[in-house]
Amino acid sequence: MSEHTQPDSTQPNSTQSDSTQANDDVAARALRRATGASSSKAGSSRLPRTPRRLGEYRDPQLLGSALDSLLADQGWTTQTATADVLSRWAEIVGADLAEHVSPQGFHEGELILIADSTTWATQVRLLLPQVHQTLDKALGKGVITKITIHGPTAPSWVKGPRRVKGRGPRDTYG
Predict the structure, then answer these.
(1) Could you give the 3-state DSSP secondary structure of residue 113?
(2) Which of 76, 84, 123, 147 sits in a 20 to 30 Å window from 141, CA-based?
(3) Do the Cβ atoms of 157 and 168 come closer than 8 Å?
(4) Can you give the residue ranges of every domain in the chain?
């Protein structure tokens, strides 16, 4: 006869304690992996800090000086100066001149102006040194290296890419 012994309720079940201990081990390993991974990631992703002058980037700056340094760092000073000319033309050269002469564009240091009439184009050509000096004061010396003045353009009777030589529009009148 075999004796069947019943487990004592005071003694822990060996299979039950093994599974609890295994769960604790798995949880402990997962915790160690998570904390070890985060500390190793934090250590590897940090770049060595470069020494900076005290207050260079951390102290508050005035908005104007911050924008000026940004424009200088990016190389946008010439573009902003030309945009300034185009937007403040009347303020820079005066209302009388701005009424009859307008800036058309700016390319590689050359400012292109369009006059209402040939008279105003001639007048601006005579005033060119003063206009250039005024623009240098407003934008800074060397931003504008050349100023080109164009008079009004006559209407073109040419239609399309091909043209027949002849007397032009007078041929149609008679």
Answers:
(1) strand
(2) 123
(3) yes
(4) 71-150
What would the two tokens of residue 123 be?
């007048």
The C-alpha atoms of residue 100 and residue 125 are separated, in whole angstroms, by 13
Question: What is the architecture of the domain spanning 71-150?
Answer: 2-Layer Sandwich (3.30)
Q: How far apart are CA 139 and CA 127, in angstroms?
A: 18
> What is the per-residue pLDDT across 85-136, written as a single tens digit (0 to 9) for each?
888 888 988 899 999 999 988 888 888 999 999 999 999 999 999 999 998 8
Burial 131-140 (b: 16+ CB within 10 A, else e): beeebeebbe
pTM greater than 0.90: no
Note the residue count of the chain.
174
Whose tokens are 């769960």? That residue is: 23
* Eight-class DSSP state of 148: E
Q: How far is residue 29's CA from residue 13's CA, in Å, rounded to a whole number?
A: 24
